[in-house]
Recover the amino acids of this structure.
């Protein structure tokens, strides 16, 4: 039960922060939803750091990892919003923003995870 509460609390904080970032950075006239992009990239970096710390000399215990990685990062990042925003870009015919947003999200997201883990190892 404690583990469920940790995931719940972390997810709540992550979701609220993603909402706030989206309110400030997402603008339908811009094309690319920068708020979701920023949340997903920052969340990828954070999960790399968190899981790197968890693996490095057991710096984080399993409860801390559940709170931060599963809970916070899980609530902060969002694949469903990413998919929906891509749907909107395609529906509006903005194929260049769709391509840039999708490709950049995957490449930079993966690099952010690897970079986060690399930073912890250094």
């Amino acid at each position: 039960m404690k583990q469920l509460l940790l995931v719940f609390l972390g997810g709540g904080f992550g979701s609220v922060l993603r909402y706030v970032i989206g309110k400030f950075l997402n603008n339908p006239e811009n094309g690319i939803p920068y708020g979701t992009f920023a949340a997903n990239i920052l969340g990828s970096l954070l999960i790399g750091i968190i899981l790197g710390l968890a693996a490095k000399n057991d710096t984080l215990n399993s409860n801390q990892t559940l709170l931060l990685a599963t809970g916070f990062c899980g609530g902060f990042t969002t694949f469903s919003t990413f998919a929906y925003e891509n749907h909107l870009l395609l529906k509006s015919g903005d194929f260049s923003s769709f391509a840039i947003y999708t490709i950049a999200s995957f490449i930079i997201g993966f690099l952010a995870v690897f970079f986060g883990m690399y930073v912890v190892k250094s």
About this structure: The mean pLDDT is 94.
